[in-house]
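Record minuted for completeness.

…
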Amino acid sequence: MFALYLASGEITRLVDAPLFVVAAQLQEGELAAWVDDDVRDDTHWIDDAATPQPKADYTLEALPIPCTVTIEGVEYHCTEQPEFEFDAPGTYVILVDAGPRYLRKEFNIENTPLLA
């Protein structure tokens, strides 16, 4: 199987076909690397040596920087570790995208009101 990917390492798609078929499917800016069947675009990226690598994991308290955090459809570009505070009670979904070397993750924060 081949991973078609960009210079950034992002896998754009996986193709299980002979090399001549894969070569014909390459779009501008795409490269191809032979990968094992367990490689997936959501869990791997391709390094400079055309070798698949697992995407790194992280926690909400230690985000990879820089990253993009999306809350209620609004994107925030973070260049330092953010602190999350919400005025209204409820559950907030925080989406994090730190590029092809890291997992795209979703975190839920429950904001409960303080009792006076």
Summary: The mean pLDDT is 95. Helices lie at 19-25. Residues 67-111 form one domain. The CA atoms of residues 79 and 110 lie 24 Å apart.
